[in-house]
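In this supplementary section we document a worked example of the pipeline. Step one takes a protein sequence of length 410 as its only input; no multiple sequence alignment statistics are reported here. Step two produces a three-dimensional model, which step three serialises into structure tokens for compact storage. The input and output of this example are shown verbatim.
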Amino acid sequence: MASPETIVIGAGQAGLAASYCLNARGIEHVVFERGRVGETWRSERWDGFYLNTPNWTLRLPGFEYDGPEPDAFAPLAEIIAGLEAYARSFAAPVREGVEVMAVRPDRSGLVVETSAGVSRAANVIAAAGAYQRPTPTPLSATMPPGLAQLHTSEYRRPGQLPEGAVMIVGSGQSGCQIAEELLAAGRRVYLAVGRCPWLPRRYRGRELMHWMADIGLADETVDKLPSPAARLLCNIPVSGNDGGHDCNPRWLARRGAVLLGRILGVDGWTLRIASGLPESLAAGDEFVAAFRKRVDDFVAANGMTTADPEPPDAREPVPVLTELDLREAGVGTILWANGFRPDYRWIQGIEIDEQGWPVHRRGVSPLPGLYFVGMHWLHKRKSALLFGVGEDAAYVVDHIRQISWRGQAR
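The serialised model returned by step three reads:
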């Protein structure tokens, strides 16, 4: 295989943003993609998925949304088509169907082993997605054998599931949105609630992402997190369906979902359930209250003219179940919505921290020539999002260019 100066791994929004920046700076490169452009969107999202950030956040280097509906939410097909059009707009040198199996250093730089052969490069930008593997679920092995089980990355549509009620374990972004879809399809839904906080889709007459940008939440940097483990916390659940609306455990309960606490274990067909559901819901309520206060303080400090604050959502009491007979409840499927974890074992010669993330600083690895883009909390809260990944891509590519200039000067 040819040996370009730089190899980009992955042709999602992160890899394409890096490719655009490399192209703009005249740096020879190739992008290896195991499937097609936007493959993660194709293979790990359900059919009825809508982006839960509005169209005005569709920003990549050299591209900003300029369509007629900046405040609408794009369905899955539009997101994929948009990424394909973006790649064509600057003739991104993407090689589809080339899977990278390993990256390792040698004396000449970095060796990239792929399904199409071996290549070498001075630089490698790993843009293989925010997460690489579903979170392990030890409980799954203890569930009754007649029960269907799948991870959210395998879910596509309600009709794919066996008949009966669905138990969703996890109340983050995917868990809440899929619960909404299943309820709309007439399914009985049991939702095991974790400690994932939530925010309102709109407040004081403005959409959430406008507030997150204005008050600085989107630009919070990773060093402000209370601990390194906080990088693995869930993405805040909201929905882009039907024009965008709230999507959290309380919202779902009002529409028929049965809320449960954390699953402790299973005895035959009977789930043992922790009693901490009220505390989990209270933690979510407190997170919303803190956000509302931060917005209110921002409005007052800046003399903004906005709608008056909406009253807080009702905090209806919910029954606390400590066990549930899955057979009596008619549950036919357990859907594991417990997220993903990083997996960088395919890159040799790097240090991995306790959470599984490679050690780096703003995407620059201590291993010479190795870089990361598109990682969750790579530098900011928005680092893996469409309107944040371009900043990190530009930073990494500028670092590559500076190193290259120094080498040429020598």
